[in-house]
Design goal:
This protein is an alpha/beta fold. Helices cover 25% and strands 27% of the residues. The strands form 3 sheets. Strands 3, 4, 5, 6, 7, 14 and 15 form a 7-stranded mixed β-sheet that branches. A 6-stranded parallel β-sheet has the order 10-9-8-11-12-13, sandwiched between helices. Strands 1-2 form a two-stranded antiparallel sheet.
Length: 338
């Protein structure tokens, strides 16, 4: 049997182009002792996927290079196991290659039991690295309390939408920042947020000063750049800025042209805190955050939205959706069905 995979052909610097990847047919690899062979069902396409393709040490903690199979978060079924912790037929999620069959390291995957009332795609959105990032950022890093004013950028995106919905369900006043009237309507009419700011049509700093006259208590940042700067000028004393992503800066051709925040002195004056994080930082506590997500989901407080592209061969082109913000829900590629 032949495998099909996307191989990194060259670093992707500046504006993303699918040409940084090449399609390759190759034999299916055999797992070594301690490894497993996984049949891929779904692959997550994330902003960080674009970052990893830069092949810059500052952009990833993964050992990717020219000639490597591109990797990402995925869902699959164990085909063959040489690990005592997994058996053929197990449903698993975790990190492995953009390929139909992939040899995975047990330390990078976990077994899960799919519940009949939960769509498979939700295990790559709410019950995945995405939902965990929302829960960790909101509750662990942001220390969000029920009386806080919470602002979320990229609020219609995969992580931002989950964070915004949980904050609202907790009783916070929540303002979402997104691009375009359709996404802003989604934030208010479907997610129930208190207000939405269209950064493409409004001055974000002015809008925040009107919507948050006493300042922002928690800012969940997915975009960085000028929007972060606008929030810094509207912080309440003791504001917590949670840095989950910096989407606006990922496609820069020259890192020296990155946006420089002008309002950083406000961090001093407002006694604020800015903290970034990545999900693996709290790997020993995943059960705790999974329980939070399950509680919100089972009570109907988190909507599941997935944008599924059919076919592994379309993955590099589909990644453009998440960079342009043109996806409708969590972006993923279906490689095979159960």
């Amino acid at each position: 049997m032949q495998n099909e995979a996307w191989i990194i052909a060259q670093p992707s610097r500046g504006e993303y182009s699918p040409e940084c990847l090449r399609w390759e047919r190759r034999p299916i690899a055999k797992p070594s002792e301690g490894e497993i062979l996984v049949k891929t069902l779904l692959i997550s396409l994330d902003p960080t996927s674009r970052n990893w393709l830069k092949l810059e040490p500052s952009s990833t903690y993964l050992p990717l290079a020219i000639g490597s199979v591109m990797i990402g978060q995925a869902i699959g079924i164990v085909e063959e196991s040489r690990s005592p912790d997994f058996a053929p037929g197990d449903m698993v999620k975790g990190m492995w290659g953009w390929e139909r069959y992939s040899v995975a390291q047990p330390m990078l995957i976990e077994r899960f039991n799919k519940r009949s009332h939960i769509p498979l795609e939700a295990y790559l959105s709410i019950f995945s690295h995405v939902g965990r990032a929302a829960a960790i950022g909101l509750f662990e890093i942001g220390q969000t309390g029920p009386n806080d004013v919470v602002v979320v950028s990229g609020a219609a995106g995969a992580t931002g939408s989950i964070a915004a919905q949980m904050a609202k369900a907790q009783g916070n006043r929540v303002i979402g920042i997104s691009g375009g009237p359709e996404k802003c309507s989604l934030l208010i009419n479907e997610f129930g947020l208190d207000a939405a700011i269209d950064y493409k049509r409004e001055d974000v700093a002015d809008a925040l000063s009107q919507l948050c006259p006493e300042g922002v208590d928690v800012y969940f940042d997915n975009v960085g750049g000028p929007i972060l700067d606008a929030v810094l000028s509207n912080m309440a004393t003791g504001c917590r800025v949670v840095v989950c992503g910096a989407m606006s800066q990922y496609d820069l051709a020259d890192p020296n042209h990155a946006y420089g925040c002008k309002n950083l002195p406000q961090v001093l004056f407002r006694r604020a805190r800015i903290q970034g994080f990545v999900v693996p930082d709290l790997s020993s506590r995943m059960g705790e955050f999974d329980a939070i997500l399950e509680s919100f989901y089972e009570r109907g407080h988190i909507q599941h939205r997935a944008h599924v592209v059919e076919g592994l061969e379309l993955a590099p082109e589909a990644l453009k959706h998440v960079l342009r913000g043109s996806n409708d829900g969590k972006l993923m590629v279906r490689v095979a069905s159960i």
